[in-house]
Amino acid sequence: MALKATIHKADLQIADMDRHVYADHALTIARHPSETDERMMVRVLAYALYAQDGIAFTKGLFDVDEPEVWVKSLTGEIALWIDLGQPDEARIRRACSRAEQVIVLCYSSGCEVWWKQIASKLTRFSNLTVLQLPVEASQTLATLAERSMRLQCMVQDGEIWINTDTQNVAVKLTALQLPA
Fold first, then answer.
1. 121 vs 13: CA distance, rounded Å
2. Per-residue pLDDT tens over the stretch 95-150
3. What's the confidence (pLDDT) of residue 53?
4. Residue 61 confidence class, pLDDT cut points 50, 70, 90
């Protein structure tokens, strides 16, 4: 018998002063049985950082042909494709050909090794952004995971904070590749 996803609920308040995005989102997050709290919370972070009309979690681990988070236009075209972790070069190439903008958010201790292996093969993609989340930050985000969460995400001058009623997590992303 296949294991089912665990459902998490999050009330997410976003105050992104850099992009002038201020919104409240009631998220339902289906956590795949093989997904860790760390990965799930990195998905929530990605959602918060790129929140806009049309943003949605996808089937993710349930469907290998979809990213973790995407934004689709009204015509069904993929405007933004967000992948997590260390996707292989072929997946990133495919994403860059399918989406207007592609973001890879790498968050584990193997990011440097992974990036050194594929960086030179991806420089030609002008629609690709690769960001690294420090291991300490992703692990601390994992401690915020609960079945029912109240989260606030504040972004100002490139600095990111994720807050709950009891905990604050500062997040500092490092750009490994930015669009040309």
1. 38
2. 999 999 999 999 988 999 999 999 999 999 999 999 999 999 999 999 999 999 99
3. 93
4. low
Q: How far apart are the first and last CA of the chain?
A: 47
| Tokens 């594929």, residue located | 118
Q: How is the chain classified by DSSP, letter by letter?
A: -PPPPEEEEEEEEEEETTTTEEEEEEEEEEE-TT--HHHHHHHHHHHHHT--TTEEE--GGG-TTS-SEEEE-TTS-EEEEEEES---HHHHHHHHHHEEEEEEEE-STTHHHHHHHHHHHHTT-TTEEEEE--HHHHHHHHTT--SEEEEEEEEETTEEEEE-SS-EEEE--EEEE---
Question: CA angle 48-46-167, nearest 5°?
Answer: 65
Q: Are 171 and 133 in contact (CB under 8 A)?
A: yes
> What digits encode the pLDDT tens for the residues 7-38?
999 999 999 999 999 999 999 999 988 899 99
CA dihedral 149, 143, 84, 1 (to 10 degrees): -80
